[in-house]
Design a protein that fits this description.
This protein is α/β, with parallel strands linked by helices. It is built from six helices and eleven strands. It has a single domain, classed as Class I glutamine amidotransferase (GATase) domain (Rossmann fold). The protein has a seven-stranded mixed beta sheet with strand order 5-2-1-6-7-11-10, sandwiched between helices. The protein has a two-stranded antiparallel ribbon with strand order 3-4.
Length: 189
């Protein structure tokens, strides 16, 4: 594996009713790659519960984050993005990250926050199928694919797409990961 993640910082946005895998898989995958990934909620130190009650503590508060200090932001799904977009600080962060051309990675219902930030007009994107109309009405050129990359915008549909989603994010961050065959997946011993 050839990895150059030194100095890369990524905020994973959290709120109540987040989708478990869509927070924890990117958070752990980014940390495994050497990226400084941390959770960001409305307030630092607050514990947010997933749709199934699994807790995650916000390591930083949204108002303590400056877009210029981040290399990327991840917007997980679940119902959390609907709560996030009710707070201008989350919307502003996404809008400013887009203005800087920094990667914005949204999966599943994370597209709701993209809609509210007004960053979809004329751009290719995907999401969970139930918010497809919201995405199109916000101006997205909708594609039903595991991952869609349009400039700094990275979008995916569901937890099953997380491997492609994280590979696209790591690529956008300039973190080079050598592809290797998975051990034990159909390989003869």
């Amino acid at each position: 594996m050839n990895i150059d993640a030194k100095g890369k910082t990524v905020a994973i946005l959290v709120e109540d009713f987040y989708q478990e895998l869509e927070v924890w898989y990117p958070l752990l995958r980014l940390r495994e790659a050497g990226v400084e990934a941390f959770t960001v909620g409305l307030q630092a130190g607050v514990t947010y519960k997933s749709k199934l009650g699994y807790p995650v503590k916000a390591e930083r508060g949204i108002t303590s984050i400056a877009p210029a200090e981040l290399n990327a932001v991840v917007i997980p799904g679940g119902w959390a993005p609907d709560y996030m977009r009710r707070h201008e600080s989350f919307v502003t962060l996404v809008r400013e990250m887009n203005a800087l051309g920094r990667p914005i990675a949204a999966i599943c219902h994370g597209g709701w926050l993209l809609c509210s930030a007004g960053v979809l007009r004329g751009r290719r994107a995907t999401s969970f199928f139930s918010i497809k109309d919201d995405m199109i009405n916000a101006g997205a050129l909708y594609q039903d694919r595991s991952v869609v990359v349009d400039g700094n915008l990275i979008t995916s549909r569901t937890p099953e797409d997380l491997p492609d989603f994280c590979r696209a994010l790591l690529h956008a961050l300039g973190v080079l990961v050598e592809e290797t065959a998975a051990v034990g997946q159909g390989a003869e011993r």
